[in-house]
Amino acid sequence: MTTLADVARQANVSKMTVSRVINHPEKVTKELHDLVTQAMEELNYRPNYAAKALANNRTQVIKYVVSEDMDTTDPYFMHLLTGISRGLSEHYFSLQVVHEGDWSVGRADGFIFTGLKNEDYLELETLESPLVVFGENDFGYDFIDVDNITGIKHAVEHVYELGFRNILYFGIDRNEQFAHERERGYDEMMQKYQLTPKKFVMENRSTSACKVANELFEDQKLPAAIVCASDRIALGVLRAAHDSQLRVPDVIAVTGFDGVFLDQIAHPKLTTIRQPLVKMGTRLAEIIIQKIENNTPAETINEFFEPELIVRESTRRKK
């Protein structure tokens, strides 16, 4: 049976160094980490993380709590989960997904929350374990998010540069920070271009957007561009345009927000604002592990990731 001492001899380092690489990889150089990891792989050495967890009174479990509806046809959460699981597995933590259940049942070393409503934050006050939130909040909790304001600004700027002056906004009818920020981005660009805002809010469902769009197309001045707060909403607008036999993008240009699969199966393919969800998921894992290991900086962590405009056929005219 391979021991810690065997790994140390193989890597030509001390046992203490091997232990530090295993237990605190964030405290060693990449060169040293790679050297010891290679020796472990060559000797097929597997650290006893159960013993480590027991000694440190830990579970090696992180709970990922989803406090909103999960559409099984939308891989949004799967992309985020992929990033989280990759980040946790590098430090030998397991991931437990809790969907709108009692997340306080069972022990965990830390929590990652997403989809929290304002009233949900009251429940976090009694939580003693480290936590991080996916989504901007004003309650003082560490979070990461995409820059929602900038994302919508990119979309509005894009359709404006295409020559559209009748620019509508289809927002999400939810009293949450991300929805307000996306609407704010639209408002600021309308003010910049001295255009009249035309805003409509609805459920984050393609069927809701389709219904609203069909009603608008009956008396709306065309051509028009519709900037949508999500890809789901944008899909509904595209369906309504098809039903009304309106040419996309010549008569109706459409943009979405998220950039996770739905934009690629739309017809025509959807111009969207892509969130780097896998990268953000990995960062969530890094933050919660840092907090568990007490290596978190004193200041609150508020990080915004840059969104990317992906131009496709729903706004790009054929040459």
Automatic annotation (TrEMBL):
Protein source organism: Culicoidibacter larvae
Stated name of the protein: LacI family transcriptional regulator
Keywords of this entry: DNA-binding, Transcription, Transcription regulation
Gene3D superfamilies hit by this protein: 3.40.50.2300, lambda repressor-like DNA-binding domains
Pfam families found in the cross-reference section: LacI, Peripla_BP_3
Domain HTH lacI-type residues, every copy: 2-56
A GO molecular-function descriptor: DNA-binding transcription factor activity
